[in-house]
Write a structure and sequence with these properties.
Length: about 80
């Protein structure tokens, strides 16, 4: 996950996500900070919490995108050409 909030001191940093929780009703991620200590960051300040109507860059597929990917991969899974069986 990447910190995307411009005002955040770690903006642009890639952090490992170790879990999630709510802090004061706000969805947060439990992350490993660059110094190795655990910390929390609001989901909306990260690539995992894109603003309404925006998609996180390269992070998620829409439902239609997942369907298209399945159609592309289906011949390979069902023993089609190149399956090696």
């Amino acid at each position: 996950m990447i910190v995307t909030a411009a005002a955040h001191p770690l903006c642009g940093e890639r952090l490992a996500v170790e879990g999630g929780r709510r802090v004061g009703g706000v969805r947060c991620l439990i992350v490993r900070l660059p110094d190795g200590t655990p910390g929390t960051i609001e989901v909306q300040a990260t690539s995992a919490g894109s603003a309404a109507g925006e998609q996180a860059a390269g992070a998620l597929l829409s439902v239609e995108g997942a369907r298209q990917l399945r159609r592309l991969l289906e011949p390979r899974v069902s023993g089609g050409e190149g399956s090696g069986t």
